[in-house]
Amino acid sequence: MKWFQRTCINLVFICIVVGILTPVSYAEPPSNRCILIKARGDYETLVNMDLDIWKFEQDGALIRVTDDERNQIKESGFTIKTITEDVYEYFEKKRQEQIFLFAEPPSAKYHSYDEVITSLIGLEDSIIAKIAKTYIIGSTHEKRDIWAVKISDNPFKDEHEPAALIIGCLHAREWISVEVPLYIAQYLVDNYKSNQYVKDMIDNCEIWIVPVVNPDGYEYSRIYDRMWRKNRRDNEDGTFGVDLNRNFSKMWGGPNASPGTTSINYQGPQPFSEPETQAIRDLVRAHDFRVFVSYHNYGQEIYYPWRYTLEDAPMETYFYQMTLDMLDLIFEVNGKIYINGLDSPWFYLIGGSEIDWTYYKFGIYSFEIELPPSSPTFGGFILAEERIIPACEENLPAALYLIARCENIETKKPSAR
Q1: Within a domain: residue 141?
Q2: Where a domain ends, among 36, 69, 102?
Q3: Of 52, 82, 102, at which residue does a domain stop?
Q4: Which residue, of 151, 159, 166, 351, has the fewest CB within 10 Å?
Q5: Is residue 195 packed enough to be buried (19+ CB in 10 Å), middle (13-18) or exposed (0-12)?
C-alpha cells in the first residue's frame, strides 16, 4: 500500500511556492522574493531538480529557488505566479496570525546558542538532583563547541547501561528543534525525585541530549539569514555550507543529495566530512544506544528507516507500531495530529540521513520527528514563540515512551543492502 501511495503522486496537480536561495557569505544580504508556481507536473522531476523543497501538500509545495532555478522551472513548463516579494514579511504575517489565533502571551522564547549552553550547565548544577553532566563532543568550522548533556543516576561514570540519544538542529533554520530536546532534558532533571516513572528511566538508562548539533548554522540563521539551512563550511568557491542531513555514510550521495556546493542539499566532499556529523558518529560509536530521535521542523510527521529507498526496513512492523504509539501519545496531549511520514503520498527519498545510518550501522531504533507547524499556512519554519511550550509539551510523552523502551529493546544490526 505504501508503495502505491508513494508512486501514484506523479498523477497529482502540483502548486509550488518559490523564493530566492539564501546568501553564501556573511556580507551578502538575503534576498526575499517569493514566487508561486502552479503546474501539472511530474513529482520525480521536481525532486530531481535539486531544489530547496520545503513542503509537499495536496494543493502544492513550498520551494525556494535562485533566479537560475526559477528559469529552469519555467523551461520545464511550470507557470509562475508571485505570492509575495518579501518572504520574511510573508512569514511574519503568518506569525502574527498565530498570535491572533491563539490569543496567548509568549510563555517562552527561542534560546541563542550561548543560552543553550547556560541552560545545560544549569542542569548539571541543579540542586534538585545531581543527575546531569555536560560534555563537549566536538567543535565546528567556526570553533563553536557542540554541547551534550548526559542524564543518568551516575552521570560521571560509564555504567554500560542501555542508552537513548536525542538531538536537534541539524538544520539551522529549524529553531523549534532546539527547544524540544532542551525541554525534555529540563523535565527529566526537574522530575527525577518526584516522578517514579522518570526516576526508573534515569536509574536504568543513560540519556544523551544534544540540542544544537549545528551551532554555526543556527547562529547564522538567528543573526544574518533566518532561512539558512546548512552548516558554515567554507567550500572555497564562494559558497558556504553542507547539508548535515545528507552527510552521513549510509547511501551518501543518494536521492535528493547533491554534489554541487551551491545546492541547499550539498552532501559534502565525502561522508562524515563535517565536524558536526563526526561528533554524532563518535558519540554513537561510544555508547550502547537503543533508541535515537532527531528533531526537525516542520510538518508534524514521524519518519523511520529507510529514507533512501521505498523498500521496508528490517523490523518494519516494530517501527510501525512504535510510530503509532507515539502518534497516539502526541494526540492525547492537546489533540495535535501528526502522521506517519512514510505513509504520506508526499514522501520523497533522501540519501545520507542520520536515522538510516544509525539503524543500518548499529541497529538502533531511529526516528526523525518533524515538529509543528503542519504547513506553511501556519508559519512553516517560523513557529511563533507562543507555540514553543505547546510543541514541547505534546512531544514529551512520545520522547519518554522511547526512552523507557531502552530497557527492553535489544538492538540488532539489519542485513546489508
Answers
A1: yes
A2: 102
A3: 102
A4: 159
A5: middle
Model pLDDT, residue 239:
95
Residue labelled with grid coordinates 518526584: 194
* Class of residue 224 by CB neighbours under 10 A (exposed 0-12, middle 13-18, buried 19+): middle
CA 321/CA 376 separation, integer angstroms = 29
Fill in the DSSP letter of residue 240: B
Q: What burial class does residue 408 get, using C-beta atoms within 10 Å of its C-beta: 0-12 exposed, 13-18 middle, 19+ buried? A: exposed
Please give the pLDDT value at position 151: 97
pLDDT digits (tens, 9 = 90+) for 232-243: 999 999 999 999
Contact 364, 411 (CB under 8 A): yes
At 68 the pLDDT is 74
> 156-184: string of b/e by CB count within 10 Å (b at 16+)?
eeeeebbbbbbbbbbbbbbbbbbbbbbbb
Could you tell me if 279 and 146 are in contact, meaning their C-beta atoms sit under 8 angstroms apart?
yes
Residue located via cell numbers 517514579: 196
Reported as a single tens digit per residue, the pLDDT across 191-225 is 999 999 999 999 999 999 999 999 999 999 999 98
- Residue 124 inside a domain? The answer is yes
Handedness of CA 70, 71, 77, 80 (dihedral sign): positive
pLDDT at 363 > cutoff 60: yes
Closest CA to 318 of 333, 336, 305: 305
pLDDT at residue 323 is higher than 90:
yes
- What span, in angstroms and rounded, lies between the C-alpha atoms of 382 and 376? 9
Task: Please state, in angstroms and rounded to a whole number, the distance separating the CA atoms of residues 113 and 91.
Answer: 23
Same domain, 60 and 167: no
Cβ neighbours for 55, distance < 8 A, ≥ 6 positions apart: 61, 62, 298, 299, 346, 375, 376, 380
Chain position carrying cell 547501561: 161
Work out the average pLDDT over 279-307. Answer: 96
Average pLDDT over every residue of 150-176: 95
Over residues 41-57, the mean pLDDT reads 71
Q: What is the mean pLDDT of the chain?
A: 84
Residue numbers of the domain that contains 253: 113-408
234-241 contacts, C-beta under 8 A, 24 or more apart? 234/141, 235/261, 235/266, 237/261, 238/24, 238/25, 239/24, 239/266, 240/24, 240/25, 241/24, 241/217, 241/266
- Given a cut of 80, whether residue 58 has pLDDT beyond it is no
